[in-house]
User: Which sequence fits this backbone?
């Protein structure tokens, strides 16, 4: 009976270390793809009302650029972590400064074919 308890404890310890190593590997891969993962508050406080040049120095080139409402919008993928999910971050420039930010959230639409 004692051997069984020791064996179960050993299996538990080994399996938890394997799971922990796997989650660390996933987190490291995500961090490598973007220089740093920010929380929403960190991102907004770091980049709101900043110039394009400052953002380029810190985050590098955006994943995409487009125009929305006549203003330039840059999109950075997987730089913001919120509630254990990684989100895409959009920043809008007005006169060369960030004046609006928003997260791309997954669509909640469901396809209902009746």
Assistant:
């Amino acid at each position: 009976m004692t051997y069984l308890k020791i064996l179960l404890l050993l299996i538990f310890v080994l399996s938890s270390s394997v799971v922990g190593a796997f989650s660390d590997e996933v987190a490291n891969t995500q961090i490598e793809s973007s220089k740093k993962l920010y929380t929403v508050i960190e991102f907004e406080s770091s980049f709101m009302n900043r110039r394009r040049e400052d953002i380029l120095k810190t985050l590098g080139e955006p994943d995409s650029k487009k125009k929305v409402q006549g203003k330039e919008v840059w999109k950075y993928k997987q730089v913001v972590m919120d509630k254990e999910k990684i989100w895409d971050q959009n920043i809008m420039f007005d006169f060369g400064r960030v004046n609006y930010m928003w997260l791309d959230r997954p669509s909640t639409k469901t396809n209902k074919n009746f």
Q: What stands out?
A: The chain has three helices and four strands.
